[in-house]
Structures are given as structure tokens and as C-alpha cells.
Amino acid sequence: MSKWNLVIDLERCTNCYNCFLTIKDEYCENEFPGYSLPQPRHGHRWLDINKRERGSGSLMDVAYLPVTCNQCDNPPCVAKSNGALSKRPDGIVIIDLALSKGRKDLLEACPYGHIWWNEELQIPQKWSWDVHLLDQGWKSPRPVSSCGSYAFQAFKLTDEEMAKKVQDEQLEVLRPELKTKPRIYYKNLYRFTHEHIAGSVAFHLPDGREDCLESAQVKLFRGSELLSSQLTNYFGDFKFDHLPPHSGPYQLEISSGHKTITETIDLGLSLNIGVRFLD
Questions:
Q1: What confidence tens digit (pLDDT) does each residue in 173-184 have?
Q2: Are residues 118 and 132 in the same domain?
Q3: Which of 192, 217, 235 is the last residue of a domain?
Q4: Of the candidates 52, 71, 66, 48, which has an alpha carbon nearest to the alpha carbon of residue 186?
Q5: Is the preceding peptide bond at 249 cis, omega within 30 degrees of 0?
Q6: Are residues 113 and 247 in the same domain?
Q7: Do 150 and 266 share a structural domain?
Q8: pLDDT tens figures, 11-24
Q9: Distance in angstroms between the alpha carbons of the first and the last residue of the chain
């Protein structure tokens, strides 16, 4: 049977918050009988966006990570709920409005922290991917169509089809060690989970001024193993990405013409080593 999946691309997310506001628009002061009661105007973030800055200076980058209920295939919340939560055949986890009354303990059942407590109504709440709209024939949840950068995509596929997509597109899930089998997948998750070594290469002009050195050869080694090689861009910049945190030391070799410099980089978190001169 086909099940719903979301794919979120971190390279495309711009932190515009359209997805967050769309959910507020859909659920604040709105009740959908059999599906959900109104979301409080303040306090709840059924879909949130985490932010991470990597590196420093002109080579710093920022990544945005939208997070929400993962609609897990092995959901701890369902296992601990005594029927207050259930998983539909299409993969969506829903909360029973009657059985969940007073069950504040269910907030602790989600290891990702995506169940919220409505103090006024005394019920737990979360985003269930606009299931009331999907049941009416909508092709995707509202945040998919509201995302102007196309960071969100929805797919209703069999498990076999989705597994192939995951492999072909190198998709990842959050905290796979929990073994909850999320149905939210991420492209370019490395921008939030991995590190980079970046820097710039320059040279001195005869009059003493400094200029960027384009097409300098920069190589990254671990011991004697060459991990990656690239040429500096027009601005003399280079960046080696996808590196595990706290994975140093690395050896960096920068060369142009007959000049070569080498140094050891002890990588903790993303690092801008600054300018290196080749004269």
C-alpha cells in the first residue's frame, strides 16, 4: 500500500516561515471534527525551523532545518498511548480526540519533542500532515504548496518505491539511531550534521597590494590518504565539506606554480582558517 512521505531539502530552505504560518492559518481557531481541535494562538510550534551557523567570516554558511512530527513507522508515542494515538494505513500518525483527553504524559513519548500540550483543552496536539485535507483528495499538505523555494515535496509511494528513492537521492532521516523509522526524509542534511574546512588563498602584487589567487590547487589529506582536491574560485576561496565533527587532524596542501605550503588542521566544528599567501 502507498504511504505518505515528506522530503525536505536543506539547500532550498530560506527560513521564510511560510510553512509555519500556513499551519497557524489552518489550525488556529479552526476545528476539524474527527481530526483536530483548534491550535492555541501562541506557544505551539507544530512545524518549527531550527537554525545552524557553520564556520566564520565570509565563508560562514547558515542552514535551516524544518522539523515536525515524523509520522514514524515504529512510533514510540503509539506504543505508549494505550490507543490514544494510532497509525493509519497511509502512514500518518493521528491523535484520538477523546482518548487523549488529559494525557499530558504523551508529550514525553515522542523522542523528537513534537507533541504539544493544549492547556485550555487539556489535550496533546501535533501536526498530522493536514490529514483532513488529504482525505478530501488534496495532493499534498499545505506547507508543500506554500513553500516558495520548493524545499518541501510530498510523495505517496509504496515502501519499496520510497526505499529506492532514498537510495537514489541519498536521503536521510533525523536520529536514525532511535530506530523509529521516520517518514520525513532530508536532502543535504550534512549542512546541519557535518562540518567544513574553508579558507582563502592570496598573493602579493609587486607594489605590495594583496590579490586573490584563482585556480590554486588545494588538497585535503588524512595521513597519506587524499580525501579531496579542488581549485580555488575567483575569490581565492576553497571549502571542503561533509566532514564529521571533531574528526581532525587533517593535512592541508596548497600549491600554485612552484610554491607549496602544508599545514595540519585539527577539526572540531566548521572552521575558516583565514588567508594563506602563496608568493
A1: 999 999 999 999
A2: yes
A3: 192
A4: 66
A5: yes
A6: no
A7: no
A8: 999 999 999 999 99
A9: 64
Examine the fold and report which residue of 192, 211, 226 is the final residue of a domain before the chain moves on: 192
β-strands 61-67, 210-212: how paired?
Answer: unpaired
For residues 71 and 86, give the distance between their C-alpha atoms in angstroms, rounded to a whole number.
10
Domain count, the chain: 2
Task: Indicate if 82 and 114 belong to the same structural domain.
Answer: yes
Comparing CA positions, the residue from 118, 70, 71, 74 lying closest to residue 97 is 118
Q: What is the pLDDT of residues 71-121, one digit of tens each?
A: 999 999 999 999 999 999 999 999 999 999 999 999 999 999 999 999 999
Alpha carbons within 13 angstroms on the beta-carbon side of residue 211 total 11
> How many whole angstroms separate alpha carbon 240 and alpha carbon 89?
43
Q: How confident is the model at residue 257 (pLDDT cuts 50, 70, 90)?
A: confident
**Domain, as residue range, for 96:** 3-192
Residues 127, 201, single domain; the answer is no
Mind listing the pLDDT tens digit for each residue in 38-70? Answer: 999 999 999 999 999 999 999 999 999 999 999
Q: What are phi and psi of 133, to 5 degrees?
A: -80, -40
